[in-house]
Amino acid sequence: MRRRNSDFRRPVRRRFSNVFWLTLCGLAVLLLIILLSRETRDSSSRLVYTKRPYRHDRIADGLNITEEMLRPESMTRQINDQISLAKAILVIAKESNNLQFAWELSAQIRNSQMLLSNAASRRSPLTNRESESAIRDMALLLYQAQQLHYDSATMFMRLKAKIQSLEEQANSFSEKSSKYGQIAAEEVPKSLYCLGVRLTAEWFRSSNLQKKLKEEKQAAAKLVDTGLYHFCVFSDNILATSVVVNSTAMNSKNPDMVVFHLVTDEVNYAAMKAWFTMNSFRGVTVVVQKIEEFSWLNASYVPVLKQLQDSDTQNYYFSGNHDNSRTPIKFRNPKYLSMLNHLRFYIPEVFPALKKVVFLDDDVVVQKDLSALFTTDLNGNVNGAVETCMETFHRYHKYLNYSHPLIRQHFDPDACGWAFGMNVFDLVEWRKRNVTGIYHYWQEKNVDRTLWKLGTLPPGLLTFYGLTEALSPSWHILGFGYTNVDSKLIEKGAVLHFNGNSKPWLKIGIEKYKPLWDKYVDYSHPLLQQCNFH
Ligand SMILES: *[C@@H]1O[C@H](CO)[C@@H](O)[C@H](O)[C@H]1NC(C)=O
Ligand SMILES: *[C@@H]1O[C@H](CO)[C@@H](O)[C@H](O)[C@H]1NC(C)=O
Ligand SMILES: *[C@@H]1O[C@H](CO)[C@@H](O)[C@H](O)[C@H]1NC(C)=O
Ligand SMILES: *[C@@H]1O[C@H](CO)[C@@H](O)[C@H](O)[C@H]1NC(C)=O
Ligand SMILES: *[C@@H]1O[C@H](CO)[C@@H](O)[C@H](O)[C@H]1NC(C)=O
């Protein structure tokens, strides 16, 4: 990137710590100019003009260069426009390591500049004849650049991606330096653990159980009524799940039509039931299941479970837990944690009676009524999700191993990634197209972890490839757990997602965004007080 400075004959003070940022800013400005220049030719000439007045003054001695540049048929302007575009592309070509192309471009830029300066020194406009070949040669190169996707829109996205990844790096660095990890996070999970214990005790002590049983009878019909709005959350975090349910309820126009299907693990089951029995959420129906209930979820059916039995895989997945001995009580069982994560691939089996479900991660906050999601046309697709490739460069090649022939054969590396966390699933299509079978196929192919490493997004991208409908981006705003989010997006967003490490229930949560989540926590609740939540 630094080589760029010599391309632009502008004095740039080299302050090394800032060189990179200056370069990026410069590029962004330049790109803006190019984008504008493509839109309106008139304004482009003005812009080019104000950008380098000195040169035109020099040329202008005998010839009014403003007038010349504003003439619709001006060759000077065409060449000028081409040069500025070519210079931007030169940067992209160098950055993409296409040195041959960069070399050809520089040669042509020099050629065109020569033509301009000849015309300037003889003080008469360029004629069509003398400029024709230069313009054509340059146009050819610019056309090639387009074929290579070196256009300004692509570059703009790349720059954004680069800036974002730098921010991510910076953030993760500051997280680390503030002793990120179990150590810094310990205090709040202790409170979470306390809450779990007290709720469990409450559940077995109090007669709420009976009340709950009675309610369950009433609710039973609702749980399978396909005319209602069914949401599912798979989580072992009571407080986070409570925020998801509460925020959905508070912002729902018809809370009595909302049904929440929560799935947790054995450890948190009683506590989860207790919490959603003792609190009411504007008449929203809540049912809690535990993952152990699902006898079909076993190693002979589920590849992930089979793979987890393999000790090699165990080491791989759990070797990060060096500080297990330091964590006082293992309240998060990584096996279940991981299976709760993978449960998203079995939704039709978890809810055999349902036709449509909105899946929410437990680290989201809902800000709007979500009922429109249930009538959104998915055009025969299985998964309705918000695409992520416009915000950053989150395309398939970022997540998958494109050196692997299976991946190369089946998937377009430039396909747009999308996000888990707020998805509409059409379970009828899912069953019809055997999507779980597709997932099993890929999960089994990945037994040696050469297709992807960790997580559920990469297998999700494979499983729902060609089966995903892009939803309007305001349905799902991402990044609250690691980056800065545009405040206009925050207001408009229906679901805000704290993806990233800085969860709002941890001490290291990003202070700025915590209130968005805190709003839906009742900190005056006696149990939260006893467990030191604040
Ligand atoms: C050049 O032309 C522009 C617009 O026609 C005019 O405003 C400007 O004064 C002229 N400059 C010179 C140096 O004649
Ligand atoms: C495992 O799951 C399969 C189908 O999902 C089921 O047929 C089988 O009975 C289950 N095995 C056990 C031991 O529950
Ligand atoms: C679904 O896919 C799996 C694995 O690809 C296959 O074994 C199974 O027979 C398929 N089921 C149906 C109903 O097509
Ligand atoms: C990607 O796939 C190739 C081909 O199977 C394999 O050799 C390589 O190790 C994989 N890369 C990673 C990072 O797993
Ligand atoms: C739900 O959120 C509202 C604020 O929007 C809050 O007043 C209420 O206490 C919350 N309920 C629970 C059970 O957390």
Overview of the molecule:
Pfam families: GAUT_1, Glyco_transf_8. It is a single-pass type II membrane protein. One of its GO terms (biological process) is cell wall organization. With 534 residues, the protein is α/β, with parallel strands linked by helices. It folds into 2 domains: 65-150; 190-530, Spore Coat Polysaccharide Biosynthesis Protein SpsA, Chain A (Alpha-Beta Complex), CATH 3.90.550.10. 54% of the residues lie in helices and 8% in strands. A 7-stranded mixed beta sheet has the order 3-2-1-4-7-6-8, with helices on both faces. It has a 3-stranded mixed beta sheet with strand order 5-10-9. Strand 9, helix 24 (487-492) and strand 10 (495-497) form a beta-alpha-beta unit. Helix 2 crosses helix 6, helix 2 packs antiparallel against helix 9 and helix 7 (99-122) packs antiparallel against helix 8 (128-147). The longest helix is centred in the N-terminal third of the chain and has 26 residues, at 152-177. It is elongated, with a radius of gyration of 29 Å. The relative contact order is 0.08. The model is unreliable at 1-16, 39-60, 174-187 and 320-333 (pLDDT under 50). Bound molecules: 2-acetamido-2-deoxy-beta-D-glucopyranose (5 copies). Residues 60, 64, 66-67 line the site of one 2-acetamido-2-deoxy-beta-D-glucopyranose. The site of one 2-acetamido-2-deoxy-beta-D-glucopyranose has 5 residues, from loops.
